[in-house]
Every structure is written in C-alpha cells, then in structure tokens.
Amino acid sequence: MLGRMMQFPLTLTHLLTRAASLFSDTEIVAVRPDKSLHRTTYGATVKRAARLANLLTRLGVKPGDRVATLCWNHEAHLEAYLGVPAMGAVIHTLNLRLHPSEIAYIARHAEDTVIIVDRSLLGLFEKFRAEVPSIRHVLVVPDAGPAPEGTLDLEVELAKERDDFDYPALDENQAAMICYTSGTTGNPKGVVYSHRSTVLHAMAACMADALGVSETDTILPVVPMFHAAAWGVPYAGFLCGAKLVMPGPHLDPASLVSLMASERVTLAAGVPTIWIGILALLDKDPKAHDLSAIRSMVIGGSAAPPALITGFAERHGLHVTHAWGMTETNPLGTLARLRRGMTSLSPAAQLEKRASQGYAVPFVETRHTDETGKVLPRDGATMGELEVRGPWVAASYFGGEGLDRFTADGWFKTGDVVTLDADGYVKITDRSKDVIKSGGEWISSVALENALMSHPSVLEAAVFAGRHEKWDERPIAAIVLREGKTATDDELTAHLATQVAKYWLPDAYVTVAQIPRTSTGKFLKSKLREQYGELLLSKK
Ligand code: AMP
Fold it and tell me: Residue 186: is its pLDDT beyond 80?
C-alpha cells in the first residue's frame, strides 16, 4: 500500500517563498572591502534574487546552464545562491584562492556561461578569462567602486529588471550547485548538489543535535561560500529565518572578533586556522570584545586541536562544536556532541569525544574498511578508510570522473583514515595521502599535531612523513611558535612523551613562520614533504 501524502518537491524555491512570506524584515549584514557595513533584509534579497533570475534569462541562461561566481561572502553572493538554482540554472562557486590556471580548468570543465565577479576580484578574473571561452557574459558586483567600462555592472543591470520571477516547477533531483573538490590529488572534480540534497542537508544542519540553527540565531559564515556551499550554513540560516552576517574579504582575527561583538553573532563557522588566530587574539586581551552572545563556534575542515576547544572553554567561556565533512558530503557528515550519560565521564574522556570528528548526523551512514574492502570493527583502535553514504553524499562526480571513489555496494570512499568506536564516534588519524608508515606501523600525524598544539609555546604544528633509511618513514614536526615564545626539541619531545607511544615521537622538528596551506585553509603537507622530506636522510 502506498502512502497518501503529497509529493511536494524539496527545492530551494521554497526557501525564497518562505522567506518572503515570513521573514521579510530579517536582517542581512555584509562587510564591504572598505570595511563599511551594508545592511539589507530577507525581503530585499528575495526581490533581488528575482531580478537576477530575470537578468540571467535576458542574458540567455537556460535551465541547467552553469552560472559561476567569483565572490567573497556577501549579500549579492547569497542572492545568486537562491536565484540561480530557483530559476533552474546551476550556481558554480569558484574558489578565489586557487591559482588562476586551476580556476580556468574548473570553469572550463563546468562550461560556465555567465560569471558574477566582485569588482575587487576582477584582477584575478582577468588572469584566466581568456582561457574560458564558454563564458559569454561578465557581471561585476560593484563592491569596490563601479564596474569598469566594457563590463556589465550588476547593480545597473538589476535595476532594469522586475523584482518578481515566475519560478519554474523544478524536479527536486535537478542540479542546484556545482562545487569542485580542492584536488590536492589529481584534477579537481565537480560535485553536483541537487535541490533535494541541499534542502535535506539544510534541514539536518538545523537539528538541535546538529548545528541547532534557529530563527533567533545570528550567523556568521566565516567559511567561504566557494567552499562546499559555506558548509550549507547560509541555506540553513535562510531556511530558519536567522539573521546573516557576511564577512566579505575581512577574515583576519581582529575584524572577525569585532564583527562578532558588534552584530551579536550567536553562531559562527570556520576552519581551525581562523579560530587559532582568534583564540590568540582573545588570550592577549580577553576583555577587549564582548562575545557573550556566542552560543557556539563550529569548527571543521581540518581537525580542531583539543587545546583549541579547551582554550576557548576554559579561558573565555566559549563553546566549540567540532564537525567533519567534505565537498562530496554537501558537506556535513559527522558532528562531535556528547551523548546522554557522557557528561558524567572524566573531563579528559569528554574532551576525547568532543575533539573526535563525532558521530554521523541522521541519514549519513559511516563504516571503515581495509585495503581489500573488508568492513573493520568499531573498536576505537583499528584504522581503516572511512566510507559514507546518504542523501547528501555524492553518487558520482561531474563528467563521471573518479569512479574508484565509489564502491560497488553504494558507499563513497572518503580518503580519510579513521578509527570508529563502539558509540559510532569517528576519529580521523590521517588523510590517506598524509599517513606516516614507520616500519609498517601507522603513526597518526593528527594525534601528534594535537599533542604538540597543547604545548604553551606552540601556535600551530603539522606533522608529516620524512623519508628514513631504516624505517621507510618517520615523523617530522613543523612548528610555528607563539610570539615571543621558545621551545627546544627536547622540551617538545618531553611534552609529547607523556601523551603518545615512544615510536611516534618525531625524529626532527623544523620551526617555520607559517604552515603552508591549501586554498581551503588545510595544512598542505605535500609542500612540507617536498621541502623537508629528505631531512632525515641527510642527517644520517
Ligand atoms: P573539503 O572537501 O575541501 O572540505 O575537504 C574534506 C576533507 O577535509 C576531509 O576528507 C578531511 O580530510 C578534512 N576534514 C574536514 N573536516 C575535518 C575535521 N573536523 N577533522 C579532520 N579533518 C577534517
């Protein structure tokens, strides 16, 4: 017997109509390149999204066409997040931190037809424009002065359009957004989110046991909108009617902290690097800013060091929510909340859970396997590759590439090496390409980094494999020291010796000014390996 309920499509169009009817006065704040604040509302944003849909139609954009953005986090980007998918086209968020040749590859691969680009990023665009012949029109967001001659000024063009649009009835499985993986191994691959996956992801993100987004929140997505849909945070906020605060290009700790304080932000999300900088700033002058409105800071994208979680909690009364995800998972996959009964565990055991990647959100399923594909036990010790499946997990890449990442029985291979415990908590020990194998034994670089970052002199640490004559690979630690602090190799080793097995202790330390990073703020260990990987051989 079939159910007798309505087939109501899960499309982003509903977010627009809901916002217009319920939250039209809710505020959206965006920071301009000159640091001034632009204030608008949901109502105005919905109208401008309709103008954008009309404008793109005038420019010849058809259902399924890709419309690229090369933008910071601001209200015009949000309008494209809504208007482009609702008109049946596909928004393609280009990562402005990539090399121009990489952006060109991605834009060509996706066959972008129109690009919306910030005035402040036109210089970058000009570096690859000639390499993407599919782009027919360039719309310039006048964020830093009017669009130059010869380009279309988004504001001028929007003003010519009507502020309503006859949105088509969409199939919920139609594409809404394309986001490319960062491609540290091989070419970047396109992940195509559907309306359905995006809507379900937004609803899951809003759950109290996930990010707990509600109408009373004021959300600051520090994570860029070109990185896995800013973790779905803007859609989750829009769905609930939360106030949105968009930081524009100003992602330095001082600007972010002052924005969080002045706008009374309740929920902010970003990669650990951002929060490491913010914690260092707060430690210097704890009373400078009133962050009492914050209810949680979501940290993901790479492992949140336990010292960061405790540092915020103990010194500033601020709560961290650690989450794991990937571009391929829209991105929310697991989240490290304490479960019923766990608050009676020792503080160390609680921290262990909260600093893990957590357990899967509803409808995401997790398992880990060995090289032969055998499913491994959930014993908190056996390491294997994490595999996931669920309604917002990629089933394939754009163009059918990377088939080896999808198993025959319907799981996605994440490339993360993990343990899973009996409670279902995932703990990442490494990215598979970053594992250190010493004499056939895996050493967790993440565990070593976390232990090093709990040393008072260490601001950041990245541990990578150095080639070794006898053991094949041994760990080397790259360290960034805190301002005015020192630490000898012996002090660091003594600090680690209390926390990890003896054979895990690094064979060498290198002090660096900054850990090299990927375009999405993760440690770029391949660069460290290139630079220092032979260090132990020459030491012999
Ligand atoms: P991306 O697709 O660029 O978001 O990268 C996804 C990868 O980032 C994952 O496969 C992990 O290796 C890493 N990652 C994301 N979140 C976390 C986290 N909370 N802890 C450790 N690694 C993470």
Answer: no
pLDDT score recorded for residue 185: 61
Catalytic residue among 328, 385, 460, 473: 328
Asked if the peptide bond before residue 168 counts as cis, ω within 30 degrees of 0, the response is no
Q: Is the beta carbon of 228 within 6 A of some atom in ligand 1?
A: yes
Q: Specify the number of domains making up the chain.
A: 3
Active-site residue identified among 27, 442, 493, 527: 442
Label residue 252 by pLDDT band (50, 70, 90): very high
Residue 42: predicted pLDDT? 98
pTM above 0.70, yes or no: yes
**437 catalytic per annotation:** yes
Residue 233 forms part of a structural domain: yes
Q: Starting from the edge strand earliest in sequence, which strands make up the sheet with 359-360, in order?
A: 37-41, 27-31, 243-246, 218-221, 267-270, 296-299, 320-325, 332-335, 359-360
Ligand 1 centroid – CA 35 distance (Å): 30
310 tagged catalytic: no
Q: Among residues 404, 433, 462, which one ends one of the domains?
A: 433
Q: Is the pLDDT of residue 398 over 70?
A: yes
Q: Is residue 442 annotated as part of the catalytic site, yes or no?
A: yes
CATH classification of the domain holding 529:
3.30.300.30
Question: For residue 280, what are the domain limits?
Answer: 252-433
Q: What is the pLDDT of residue 149?
A: 87
On whether both 172 and 59 belong to a single domain, the answer is yes
Tokens representing 83 are 């208007």
Residues 466 and 419 in one domain: no
| Residues in a beta bridge with 463 | 477
> Which 8-state DSSP code applies to residue 259?
H
